[in-house]
Structure formats: structure tokens, C-alpha cells
Amino acid sequence: MRHPEGPTDIGQIAELTMQLRREVGAGVRRIGLAHMIGTGAVCYVHVLQRS
User: Fold this and answer.
1) How far is Cα 20 from Cα 43, in angstroms, rounded to an integer?
2) For residue 49, what are the β-bridge partners?
3) CA–CA separation, 13 vs 9, rounded Å?
4) Concatenated DSSP letters for 2-49?
5) CA-based angle 27:32:37, to the nearest 5?
6) Contact 5/44 with Cβ under 8 angstroms?
7) Are 11 and 46 in contact (CB under 8 A)?
8) In which domain, by residue range, is 42 found?
């Protein structure tokens, strides 16, 4: 059984978005990075920046 890449990425991006909007967590964040390394040639990196 493989790990579902799509739902994991969506969850990570949602969490980063909430942190960058200061909806959760403490502190000031300007840049967020999420990554996932799957099997074989599957690798995702998302970099979000608050403007």
C-alpha cells in the first residue's frame, strides 16, 4: 500500500497557510516550506511566502 501523496500535500499546505496567516501557532512567520519524499522519483517541495 502506497502513501497518498495528494492528501498529505494538501494538509501540509493548509497548515502552512494557517501559520503564515497567524491563525495557529505563535510567532511571526514569513516563509513556509513543506516537503515530501515518496517512493521512486516522487518528491515535492512547496515554498510559501507571506506578502
Assistant:
1) 23
2) 31
3) 6
4) ---HHHHHHHHHHHHHHHHTTSSSSS--SEEEEEEE-STT-EEEEEEE
5) 135
6) yes
7) no
8) 5-49
Spatial separation of the C-alpha atoms in residues 17 and 39, rounded to whole Å: 26
Q: Are strands 31-37 and 43-49 parallel, antiparallel or unpaired?
A: antiparallel
How far apart are the two ends of the chain, measured CA to CA in Å?
39
The grid coordinates of residue 38 equal 515518496
Domain count of the fold of the chain: 1
Question: Which three three-digit cell numbers place residue 36?
Answer: 515530501
Q: Taking residues 7-27, report their average pLDDT.
A: 86
Q: Look at residue 31 in the predicted model and tell me its pLDDT.
A: 94
Q: Is 28 a residue whose pLDDT tops 60?
A: yes
